[in-house]
Amino acid sequence: MTSPASRPVPPAAANPLNLRGAVDLSSLKQRPAAPPAGTGTPGAPAAGNAGEEHPRRPLRVDITEANFQELVELSAQVPVVVALWAAYSPGSAEVVDVLERIVDSYEGQLVLGAADVEAFPQLAQAFQVQAVPTAVALVKGQPVPLFQGGAEEPQVRSLLDELLKVAAANGVSGRIGAGGPGAAEAEAPPLPPLHQKAFDAIEAGDYAAAADAYRQALLEMPADADAKAGLAQVELMGRLQPLSAADTEALRQKAATEPDSLDAQLGVADLDVAGGHVEDGLGRIVAFIGRNFGPQRETARVRLLELFDVVGTGDERVAKARQNLARVLF
């Protein structure tokens, strides 16, 4: 990928929480359903809601505050590729066009959402976008980073091929019909009852209830990998939910001055993983384990394993952290 544009995206009042190296979009789901003025996408007229067919591009939707939640929900059936662009970025139009052409070639396995960061700055802030153009994907409402900057078609196709594999592994393997995003075929099976209960609790912002549902699912089926990962994620969300900006700053300062404070080091590791700085977060706990012994070491080790589940046990950053953990333990 080429170097990204240097101009930062507009600021927005948001306190995002990242999962699997990206963000929690729940703060955006509850925003008023009123489209911002002046929206538009490079090379295309404005689109309607996610359930309406685009006049010329049935697998492309222009994202607004009004239709964003529909796209989040759609990502439980097919992955949604989100292109964040801006009129001030010369490369934005090209990236959106490349993504549109490629997404169309997958014949309904993917949907493209184009978001103007100047018209919808809250979305850019939630994704922690530093420059545009940037592309991310949504799978079951969870963002997956793709690339930032210019896009070359072979590399993008390779990324999207991998995205489809990840999505399929998580039960997302639907296909959009010829009528566009509103015509998604109901191929994805319904969630198990306890998973649905957890999902509904997450939607309501009740992470404690979601955790209880996942724990019950694990009692019934201890090998339920999705429940294990879900539990780790909602516990992380629950730990970070009450933190204010002042709390976060104080926690980071304490971690810097007290390297052997278990609470401070684990707290900042949570923030790092949630903020997409996965290697920093995992490395912080590994370093703490290497310096300490006894009950604190075991507590830190357990938290590290939970964060492995949050990031994804197949992630190369988790594999690296496992190797480093083995070195400090043995």
Briefly, what is this?
The chain is of the alpha/beta class and 330 residues long.
Structural features, described:
Residues 1-57 and 182-188 have low confidence and may be disordered. The chain folds into 2 domains: 26-183, Glutaredoxin; 193-329, no CATH class. Strands 1-3-2-4-5 form a 5-stranded mixed beta sheet, sandwiched between helices. The protein is an alpha/beta fold and 330 residues long. It has helices at residues 26-29, 68-74, 92-105, 121-126, 153-169, 193-203, 207-220, 225-240, 245-257, 262-274, 278-291, 295-311, 316-329, and strands at 60-62, 80-85, 111-116, 134-139, 142-148. α8 crosses α12 and α11 packs parallel to α13 (316-329). β2 (80-85), α3 and β3 (111-116) form a beta-alpha-beta unit.
- Low-pLDDT sequence parts: 1-57, 182-188
Structural class: alpha/beta
- Distance separating the two termini: 39 Å
Radius of gyration: 20 Å
CATH-assigned homologous superfamily of the largest domain: Glutaredoxin
Helix content: 40-55%
Number of helices: 13
Could you give the count of β-strands?
5
Strand content: 5-15%
Strand order of the largest sheet: 1-3-2-4-5
Order of helices and strands: HEHEHEHEEHHHHHHHHH
Give the overall shape, derived from the CA principal axes. Answer: globular
How many domains make up the coordinates? 2
- The CATH class of the largest domain, by name, is Alpha Beta
| Mean of pLDDT | 78
Profile the largest sheet.
5 strands, mixed
- Architecture (CATH level 2) name of the largest domain: 3-Layer(aba) Sandwich
